[in-house]
Specification:
It contains 13 helices and ten strands. The protein is α/β, with parallel strands linked by helices and about 325 residues long. It has three domains: about 190 residues, 3-Layer(aba) Sandwich (Rossmann fold); about 40 residues; about 55 residues, Orthogonal Bundle (Arc Repressor Mutant, subunit A). Helix 10 runs antiparallel to helix 11 and helix 10 packs across helix 13. The longest helix is centred in the last third of the chain and has 19 residues.
């Protein structure tokens, strides 16, 4: 029943960006359990129910008012056209602040793109790390010095309040929340259904110089494909550069341009992802998972796993597979 599902409420404002609203409904709406049960109930509300203009030439009709937030488990605030108008930044409409005041203290709150301005104006980001679209970060930092602004990441997750950098990183943020709630397999299935990458680490650069490699240039793609099939063993920069037919210096520079991370950061990310999948889907002990994912020792795996996810491998496995799931190393 819907009452048993995690309730995601999207709070929209006049001038909303329809794509950002669609992202939340589409991704959370596709998340299902192994038995095919939908894991989330997703609804949209607005401070004043009725016709809501978008930033395009059409409107949407929103039937639910702010009372929908009373039972929210997660609240998502997308961007709106006013966020891009300098005279509107740094302020929050009374009806929006009153709506956000209804959110339960136990609920998770997230923003997409410049929706972070609303969270900051409502005081929800005070003392927290946050991001927004890279074009707006300087102004955000000036308006809200009490917020730790990180202009170089796709999304942040600080004690239940999350922010993302732009429309596409809103996809990453939703997948991150689904992965946090239900594990990598559920999130990966949603990503496959939406035909998007299953995981881009939040710390990846939000502005990548060459997201699509020009056809006349060599790519680091072959090196990444090689690394993914050899994560279990040591990987040296010289070996990867050779796979891409580049010098190490050129390979380092080109890799960052194409992936938004250094080669070693990217490899660690892929190894953590492999370890996560093994923890969720197998009964292998931690030391064996460390070897299979390329960390070598259980100690190294625990160090990197905790740095990336904030929990130990043992705690992660218990969260997603239950304490009685078999050996946990």
């Amino acid at each position: 029943m819907a009452e048993d599902r995690h309730r995601v409420v999207v709070l929209v404002r006049p001038g909303l960006l329809p794509m950002e609203l669609g992202i939340v409904h589409r991704l959370f709406g596709q998340a299902v359990s192994a038995t095919g049960t939908h894991l989330y109930e997703v609804v949209t509300c607005t401070p004043r129910p009725g016709v809501v203009p978008t930033d395009t030439d059409f409107t949407i009709n929103v039937a639910l008012g702010p009372e929908a937030l009373d039972r929210a488990d997660t609240v998502v605030v997308p961007a709106a056209q006013e966020d891009y108008e300098p005279q509107e930044r740094g302020r929050i409409d009374t009806d929006v602040s009153e709506a956000l005041a209804r959110v339960p203290g136990t609920a998770r709150v997230a923003s997409i793109c410049t929706g972070s301005f609303v969270l900051a104006a409502a005081g929800l980001l005070t003392g927290r790390r946050a991001t927004t679209h890279w074009k707006s970060c300087a102004e955000f930092r000036s308006l809200y010095p009490e917020v730790e602004v990180d202009a170089d990441v796709l999304y942040t997750d600080d004690r239940g309040v999350l922010t993302s950098a732009g429309v596409a990183s809103g996809i990453d943020l939703c997948l991150h929340m689904i992965r946090t709630d239900h594990g990598a397999e559920v999130a990966n299935a949603v990503a496959r259904g939406t035909v998007v990458p299953p995981h881009r680490e939040g710390g990846q650069a939000q502005y990548i110089e060459s997201p699509v490699t020009p056809p006349e240039q060599c790519s680091t793609g072959p090196a990444r494909e090689f690394a993914l099939t050899h994560l279990h063993r040591p990987l040296q920069l010289a070996e990867l550069a050779d796979r891409a037919s580049m010098s190490v210096r050129t390979f380092n520079r080109r890799f960052r341009q194409e992936a938004g991370l250094t080669p070693m950061q990217w490899i660690i990310q892929q190894r953590v992802d492999r370890a996560r999948r093994l923890l969720e889907g197998t009964d292998l002990p931690v030391d064996r998972i460390a070897a299979d994912s390329g960390f070598g020792t259980g100690s190294a795996l625990r160090q990197h796993f905790h740095a990336a996810l904030g929990v130990s491998p043992r705690a992660y496995r218990r969260t997603f597979r239950g304490a009685g799931s078999g050996p946990i190393g």
